[in-house]
Amino acid sequence: MQLTEKHREYWRRNLNITGILLAIWFVATFVVIWFAKELNEIVIFGFPFAFYMGAQGALIIYVLIIWYYARRMNRLDQEYGVHEGED
Questions:
Q1: I need a labelling partner for 35 at 20 to 30 A (CA). Which of 1, 67, 74, 81 fits?
Q2: Is residue 6 within 8 Å of 80, Cβ to Cβ?
């Protein structure tokens, strides 16, 4: 099967979205832990920032990433005519 220019554009946009969201995930997961000592000087709701991110913040970011990806991909699928379900 030959990919048309429309297929290539769809996958390029899909990979861009995925790459950006993976970068956000990486920062929320690894960068915060790497710089935990420095970030603990910031206090959120009475807790050091690194502790807050480990206990609550990263989980909130993960849920927001999933929500955004599902919403954005549904719109992208409809835009390119590859969506599933009822119209």
A1: 67
A2: yes
Q: Of 19, 31, 18, 40, which Cα lies nearest the Cα of 58?
A: 31
Average pLDDT over residues 54-72: 95
Say if residues 69 and 15 touch (Cβ distance below 8 Å). no
pTM: 0.84
Please list the residues that pair with 44 across neighbouring strands.
47
**Which contacts qualify for 54-61: CB closer than 8 Å, 24 or more apart?**
57/28, 57/32, 58/28, 58/29, 58/32, 61/24, 61/25, 61/28
Quick one: pLDDT band at residue 87, thresholds 50, 70, 90?
A: low
